[in-house]
Amino acid sequence: MAESSEGLGTVPEHERILQEIESTDRSVYDDQPNAHKKFMEKLDACIRNHDKEIEKMCNFHHQGFVDAITELLKVRTDAEKLKVQVTDTNRRFQDAGKEVIVHTEDIIRCRIQQRNITTVVEKLQLCLPVLEMYSKLKEQMSAKRYYSALKTMEQLENVYFPRVSQYRFCQLMIENLPKLREDIKEISMSDLKDFLESIRKHSDKIGETAMKQAQHQKIFSISLQKQNNVKFGKNRCINHDRIPEGRNDIVLKQALEEEDENEEEVLTVQDLVDFSPVYRCLHIYSVLGDEETFENYYRKQRKKQARLVLQPQSSMHETVDGYRRYFTQIVGFFVVEDHILHVTQGLVTRAYTDELWNMALSKIIAVLRAHSSYCTDPDLVLELKNLIVIFADTLQGYGFPVNRLFDLLFEIRDQYNETLLKKWAGVFSRDIFEEDNYSPIPIINEEEYKSVISKFPFQDPDLEKQPFPKKFPMSQSVPHIYIQVKEFIYASLKFSESLHRSSTEIDDMLRKSTNLLLTRTLSSCLLNLIRKPHIGLTELVQIIINTTHLEQACKYLEDFITNITNISQETVHTTRLYGLSTFKDARHAAEGEIYTKLNQKIDEFVQLADYDWTMSEPDGRASGYLMDLINFLRSIFQVFTHLPGKVAQTACMSACQHLSTSLMQMLLDNELKQISMGAVQQFNLDVIQCELFASSEPVPGFQGDTLQLAFIDLRQLLDLFMVWDWSTYLADYGQPASKYLRVNPNTALTLLEKIKDTSKKNNIFAQFRKNDRDKQKLIETVVKQLRSLVNGMSQHT
């Protein structure tokens, strides 16, 4: 290194000397013509000086040089010996070191191998955990432990791969991880699809289980409440109406027994459904950072399933099983959603479930409203109501609002009442009225008497004192109607139960339903019965008697409703039973029908009249048809003794007035052109029989000759013609005290003209006799005066 640095230093020095020489030569050759020669001379002189100095120096050092050579020659011999020794030593060392070299090379090679092995071990220690983790990843994938596999991938990427990233196998693993992730996403999504399909198929089973549990819990609560009521000793008996334990309590007992039997088999939604695919898929997508995609897919698919679940079968309204299957599927759907809501974070939110429920609730209400309108069987409507209540209670237990369902139940309750009314209309018309014989109930012994009393609240001390056999005043239909009204109340009560309403509200609903039964159904059936052609006067009389007793029984029905709803007697009811007006209207209709049928019967008898209007002398006795009519009226009015007094009196007065009117119309018939005085006398005999019948008081309660006044128009008219007292009639006409005040001039004129025509025909050959001529003139004179009176009346009018 020193030589090299010295050499590097002399190079610039030589260049400097050469530059000086070059400048000197240039000055020698360029400046003076003889300068070269002079320069050469000086140079030679300088060389000679230097040679002399060298010679002096050599002479001065010559002895030292010789001494040094002499010493070197002496050393030469020792050097050769040393050389031989060194060579020999070297040879010996070489021979001895050959084996060492061999061993040294072996040692070096071993050390290299050891170093390589150490390096390999170190690298393997880095790679083996990676390979083990990757092998573990493969095992997790094979075992379908995808969430663990993703966690393993995260460890590989974050911890292990950075240590061995320089190796090719690591790069292959790194490139393979995205594919594995996609495989896991596809597999987990496939599992989720299988899960969604599974819960769609098994949602009805889930819903059925949830509804059974809610029903058992409700039955248990009701049983506890009833036991508490028993402890307070509420009296459930009022008058003749005892609430049988059998109706609701037996159902409760049976349900409790079934619950005890199935108590060990209570299943939860976790027992019925394996939710691990959802958890797994959610965790996988969360780890992959794609949780939003999974949530959107899950919610979208569940909304599609919700629409399918909410779509009913077209024949759902035909059987209760159709409704039950519809409800269980919906309950199963929302039970699953509620479970997902509470066991996952963010997959299903309360806002999402509320939105889904509100959409479903609107659809459910629309479906139930449409399909329930097709139900005509009250039992099916009642079962539908029970299903809706269980459905609502079940979902309410999971936190879903169900007030709109109970509002819908009030609509269905109205429809239920309508179906009940139709059913009971058939019961009244077909089973009761058609089977009734419309005669008082005969009682032979005390057992039969108590049997009737147990069915109908009848109290009559006089009847109790009478010996057997005896008769109740009403017919068999009365206790049957009373029993059926109570059955209707029971049926209506069944729907009102479990509606989460107070006893007062239920009591009010029962009263309104019963009012509809009385005012619409029973009233309509009674009116239809009354108007049936085959219902005769005897049946109508019995119907009036029946309605009277039914009207009296209405207060017992009110007490019955109060009793079954556990409302205190002091509670003021806003709704009262309208049975009084119902039975009064029916009774009035029956009375009117009695009047109509009685008049029709009278018309039938009157049509049998066969007068010889041209007879010269009367038969001396009343006409046969009239005597038959009077005998019929006497028998009918005897039946009327069971009717209220005013009804019988009105019927009797109406019959007499109608008979009087019919007889008057017979005289004044336009088709009857001529009437002889003999026919008038015969007609007078018939009217006398009518007056005798009226005076015989066929119905008690008439004052004086009130009933005879029904024939006063006929009597005065016939007296006028029988006595031929025209002068008095014409003189007193218009006077309040006139003897013939009830005789209308027009009526008298019509009858007189018929008699005049008969007189002309009979006296055509006796017109020259003076008495006949005078009588004919008198008739003509009276006719003129009557016409003037008639004309005066028309002008005055």
Description:
The chain has helices spanning 2-30, 35-142, 146-160, 168-231, 248-261, 269-272, 276-287, 291-310, 320-343, 350-372, 378-397, 403-433, 446-455, 461-465, 477-496, 503-531, 537-552, 554-564, 579-607, 624-639, 645-667, 677-695, 712-723, 726-732, 745-762, 770-796, and strands at 237-238, 241-242, 442-443, 470-471. It is mainly alpha-helical. Among the domains are: 269-400, 5 helical Cullin repeat like, CATH 1.20.1310; 421-439 and 475-591, Tetracycline Repressor, domain 2 (Orthogonal Bundle), CATH 1.10.357; 630-794, Dsl1p vesicle tethering complex, Tip20p subunit, domain D (Methane Monooxygenase Hydroxylase, Chain G, domain 1). The strands form two sheets. It has a two-stranded antiparallel ribbon. A two-stranded antiparallel sheet has the order 3-4. A hairpin with a 2-residue loop joins strand 1 and strand 2 (241-242). Helix 4 (168-231) crosses helix 7 (276-287). It is rod-shaped, with a radius of gyration of 67 Å. Residues 1-8, 232-256, 258-264 and 763-768 have low confidence and may be disordered. Keywords: Exocytosis, Transport. It comes from Otolemur garnettii.
